[in-house]
Amino acid sequence: MATWDPQQYEHFSDLRNRPFADLVARVGAEAPKSVVDLGCGNGPLTISLAQRWPEATITGIDSSPAMLERARALDAAGRIRWEQGDVAAWQPSPAPDVIVTNATLQWVPGHVALIESWLRALPAGGWFAMQVPGNFDAPSHRIIREVARAHRRADDLVGALREAPVETPERYAEVLAAACGHVDVWETTYLQILDPQGAQRSPVLEWVKGTALRPLLDVLNESEQEAFLAELTQRFDAAYPRASYGVAMPFRRIFAVGRKG
Ligand SMILES: C[S@@+](CC[C@H](N)C(=O)[O-])C[C@H]1O[C@@H](n2cnc3c(N)ncnc32)[C@H](O)[C@@H]1O
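# S-adenosylmethionine complex -> structure
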């Protein structure tokens, strides 16, 4: 599993938080007793669930010790149960009333079968809400793949690439509809305006260093990382030119929400 750096991830927290807000705005649960956030990351979004449902028991599960350490530090009131675990091995037992999983299932191969099993376990009236990026054909990801494949350590890097780790919105709709009476699936392309102040050398690089590049950086030593990042910077400059208002990075995301029964 990739190592995570909460500080790097937090560079663009406003832009990363918005899809979560858009996702949970479509969850109609009024007073759930228990809520689980799978792949809770560094914690602020899980904490926002506790603010929305103050009576609920909220559990945040993540595989990264660094992300969980940050989450525990943010949760000064100790409101959330933080647990280290692999989403792929998680069992909804006892089943929560709401399952939320934001920007995580793209890291979990075979997640459709997991969703099916979670939906089977969900009680009638329970909610499932997920969001995954749908940008694996975007210039940022194409460039990462090209630079990795041309690298002298391509054999190692290619193993860390994830080609198409998510399904189409239609496929998620089909999976949810098999168990849920109410299904709500949509996609949005956010035109992310990165670094309007012009403070970063390559804001697109800073963005992908927080997420998509994690497994590749894990493979390289420090000097290899430097050269790899320098080449990506050049390629990103050409693909995402700076405008007067910042660097525009379109980012497609896929959302799926279902209510059981
Ligand atoms: C992009 S972050 C999203 C974090 C948070 N949900 C958010 O929206 O800010 C992805 C998170 O998924 C976690 N993750 C990836 N694969 C996982 C797995 N198999 N089991 C548990 N957590 C996983 C990572 O550790 C990371 O914290």
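# post-check
The CA atoms of residues 11 and 247 lie 15 Å apart.
Strands lie at 34-38, 57-62, 81-84, 98-102, 127-133, 180-194, 242-243, 246-260.
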